[in-house]
Amino acid sequence: MGKIKACLFDLDGVIVDTAKYHYIAWRELAKELGFDFTEKDNERLKGVSRMTSLEILLEIGGVTLTDEEKLRLADKKNENYRTFILKMKPDEILPGAKSFLKELKAKDIKIALGSASKNAMTILERLELTNLFEAIIDGTKVSEAKPNPEVFLKGAEALNVQPEECVVFEDAEAGVEAALAGNMRCVGIGSASVLGKAHMVVDGLHQMDYNKLISLEKE
């Protein structure tokens, strides 16, 4: 596939772990609707859009609502979630993420964010990472969810590189599939049993460096 010129990063689970805040916000909503929402239930929401997440939540609770009520609850969940992320601090960046981003920048590798989150800009600002990204493609700029490759293809376009010159960092199976569908190399962050289709799987960005990245050029 040739030379690597750019890296595209998912946000949640790769650079920062906001999953706990999503979980608390969904759990509060379930409680209000009169049922329990467990961490096991929450696994079903990973990498899924807000409205689809709400549908799963309502299915778990056996609750039927009008479309209007669903929109109101989805907004309420987001407001709850935002109260948490607005208190985030730079020490919540996952181990190794910032040093790896800085190393890439020093080696002239272009960097973009490719996240479904509509709160991505807020989170990056709270973590003081905005200046390390040359392009930020988030949920406000895409219409198709992963495994559709739209978010990553737009990232490549914004960085002015070809898809085959990009490496994507993802923690969700749908994200790995999106990278492959976009003709990009992919590093899975997490478990090889879930992310086995990726070209390389590591526990976190603390296990990555420039040399390891460049070894993917042989793939």
From TrEMBL:
Signal peptide: none annotated. It is an enzyme of class 5 (isomerase). It comes from the Bacteria. Keywords: Carbohydrate metabolism, Isomerase, Magnesium, Metal-binding, Phosphoprotein. Its cofactor is Mg(2+). This is Beta-phosphoglucomutase. Its EC number is 5.4.2.6. It comes from Carboxylicivirga linearis. It catalyses: beta-D-glucose 1-phosphate = beta-D-glucose 6-phosphate. InterPro entries: B-phosphoglucomutase_hydrolase (IPR010976), Beta-PGM (IPR010972), Beta-PGM-like (IPR051600), HAD-like_sf (IPR036412), HAD-SF_hydro_IA (IPR006439), HAD_sf (IPR023214), PGP-like_dom2 (IPR023198).
